[in-house]
Amino acid sequence: MSAGPPRTVAEAFERLGAGDATAIARAISWMEAGDPRADDLLAAIAQQPASPFIVGITGPPGAGKSTLVDALAAHWAASGQKLGVLAIDPSSPLTGGAILGDRLRMVRSAQTGEVFVRSLAARGKLGGIADAAWSAAAILAAAGRTTVLVETVGVGQADVDIGQLADVVVMVTAPGLGDEIQAMKAGLLEIAHVVVVNKGDLPGAQAAVHAFRQVARTPGSQRAAMPVLTVCAEDGKGVSELAELLEAIRDERSRDGGCWLEFSNRWAAQQLETELGPAASGWVTDRLGRSVWPSALSRVASTGSAHHVAIELLEAAARVPASSSSEEE
Amino acid sequence: MRPIRVVVAKVGLDGHDRGVKLVARAFRDAGMEVVYTGLHRSPEEVVEVVLQEDADVLGLSLLSGAHMTLVPRVIRLLNARGLGHVGLVLGGIVPPEDVVDLKAQGVAEVFGPGADLGGMARWVVHRFSPRPDDDLA
């Protein structure tokens, strides 16, 4: 008989380390609810070297994102990898409720206990869903699920969050979704690393591939080498090629040795941003100069608390007389 | 106050999902987060979803008459996986004498086919709203 959900931070941390799914689930709930135990748990997690590889899967509705996530997850699970999936849907601005229907399509992953799937509702977060998804990914990684697939709806412009959160962004589209190529151009140029044309068996798939390759070749685009793949997520065609591509990207990042350091710094930056907010951050930069940030981030990463560092920064900035503000105007 | 998380599931061979989709929408309109599992799920799969989603409530939709075998199995699985705290409600065609039996086993309520959706949603919200002394308020 399994134990019920953990009640204390210590219990949760220990059970996460053992990969316990109930602990993962409850820790994510603490985080979503703003329960103070989540902050302490995340601070403890940030000290540990378990860095997730986060793959963002985004694209217009109807592209087949959930089916692709399912196929990708099942492919990796079959090779023994432990994964997490976060399926993000909007909350109703009127009622605060949400229909979280993405996991409906995750049939293959459901058959294997190797894939932990959690649906997250945006819950009207001011900063978007990135914070919550971030923390959830950290929790999953602490439980040994170091590859995390994050699925959201978007065509790039309103979807800046996923670009901030993910190590690699896969934009999924399909033929017959209307002239979404125009809408996706900005997103493709700004945040996507890989484009997948799903339902590759339908007419129009090759034309879509061609069109996206053109977009990637736009002068000034830093994504000139952006790969465009075709898959058929439903029957799995092309999925192993996509998985290989993503693994190559992951390995390249790890080789820099910075995977954990990068995660730790990104987490620290996010925490500090949340504590300070844009106005205070701008004011601190103004009074103390940009050079104050790297050491501030290290202090957040090593102490696990952004709150005290934020207070220190604000106090230090307040001591600088307005007339001798930094030369960066 | 955080939203109530409900998993709405269809278990077994019954293939009718129009009603359960309407229920999902009514629950959303009442401010709940609803995870819908789709058709033809096994009890084991449904309980796994409840666990991963840390659901407050599981709503089972059963129109096939198999409730007296499926429901006890789900209850056993919930208990075995440390999910005894999760509320359980049923929707479907259930004879009154079975309702008594099911409630004795721990089902909180059984809603028949003609049940008013808004009323059902309000009942669930009222019954399962987090209380101040709950561990996850």
Model description:
The complex is a heterodimer of chains A (329) and B (137). Chain A has 13 helices and 8 strands. Chain A is globular and about 65 Å long. Chain A starts with 8 loop residues before the first helix and ends in a 10-residue tail after the last helix. The model of chain A has no long low-confidence stretch (mean pLDDT 83). In chain A, 50% of the residues lie in helices and 12% in strands. With 329 residues, chain A is of the alpha/beta class. Chain B has 5 helices and 5 strands. Chain B has helices spanning 18-29, 43-52, 67-80, 96-105, 117-128; strands spanning 5-10, 33-36, 57-62, 87-92, 109-111. In chain B, strands 2-1-3-4-5 form a 5-stranded parallel β-sheet, sandwiched between helices. The radius of gyration of chain B is 14 Å and the shape is globular. Chain B starts with a strand and ends in a 9-residue tail after the last helix.
What would a concise description of this structure say?
The complex is a heterodimer of chains A (329) and B (137). By secondary structure, chain A is α/β, with parallel strands linked by helices. Chain A contains 13 helices and eight strands.
Descriptors for this entry?
heterodimer, A: 329 residues, alpha/beta, seven-stranded parallel beta sheet, 13 helices, 12% strand, globular, B: 137 residues, five-stranded parallel beta sheet, 5 helices, 5 strands, 18% strand
The helix tally of chain B amounts to 5
Net shape of chain B: globular
Anisotropy-based shape of chain A: globular
Largest sheet of chain A: 7 strands, parallel
Write down the oligomeric state.
heterodimer
Main sheet strand line-up of chain A: 4-2-5-1-6-7-8
Uncertain spans of chain B, ≥5 residues at pLDDT below 50? Answer: none
| Mean of all residue-level pLDDT scores of chain B | 91
Percent in strands of chain B: 15-25%
Q: How many strand segments of chain B?
A: 5
Distance between the termini of chain B: 7 Å
Total number of β-strand segments of chain A? 8
Q: Strand pairing plus helix content of chain A: what structural class?
A: alpha/beta
